[in-house]
Amino acid sequence: MIRIEHIGIAVKDLAAAEELYGKLLGSPSYKREVVASEGVTTSFFQVGPNKIELLESSGVDGPIAKAIEKRGEGLHHIAFEVADIRAEMARLRAQGFTLLNEEPKRGADNKLVCFIHPRSANGVLVELCQEIR
Ligand code: ZN
Fold first, then answer.
1. Which distant-in-sequence residues (6+ apart) come within 8 Å of 129 by Cβ?
2. 5-15: per-residue pLDDT in tens?
3. Which residue, of 63, 73, 87, 126, has the fewest CB within 10 Å?
4. Element (H, E) at 63
5. 94 CA → ligand 1 middle, Å
6. Which are the contacts of 54, defined by CB distance < 8 A and separation ≥ 6?
7. Ligand 1 centroid vs 14 CA: distance in angstroms?
8. Inter-CA distances, 44 with 21, 47, 91, Å
9. Distance CA 102, CA 80 (A)
């Protein structure tokens, strides 16, 4: 793992949350991106070398909508940057972690991503991400 790349926060109203986080962080969102495969619209903020990713569900039954229904708005996942996502997936699988994706998939922000089940990480949904070069 190279560093914490971003922290994902589930929100109900992206426009309102963007305004709030813009005030909180002192700089506005630098990009919005729809990830159709995940049923989410994301908005990114740069905070030094790290990012905050706000996630709003595109539909009523997407993973973010379900997460908010269960636990309310708030921290959703922590994403770690990795140099070689396939190698990290193999390493974690060998260590007994449950991966939610068999293969890396395309995520927001030009990344290949894979999620680790919260059961494997003390209740935290962990994302691995590798920049697509
Ligand atoms: Zn993420």
1. 5, 6, 79, 80, 81, 82, 85, 107, 109, 111, 112, 113
2. 999 999 999 99
3. 87
4. helix 63-71
5. 23
6. 8, 9, 11, 14, 17, 18, 21, 29, 42, 43, 44, 45
7. 15
8. 10, 10, 29
9. 18
What pLDDT score does 24 carry? 98
Do residues 131 and 55 touch, judged by C-beta distance below 8 A?
no
Token pair in block for residue 36 = 């159709």
What's the number of CA atoms in the CB half-sphere (13 Å) around residue 98?
10
Give the integer Cα–Cα distance in Å for 42 and 36.
10
CA of 6 to the centre of ligand 1 (A): 6
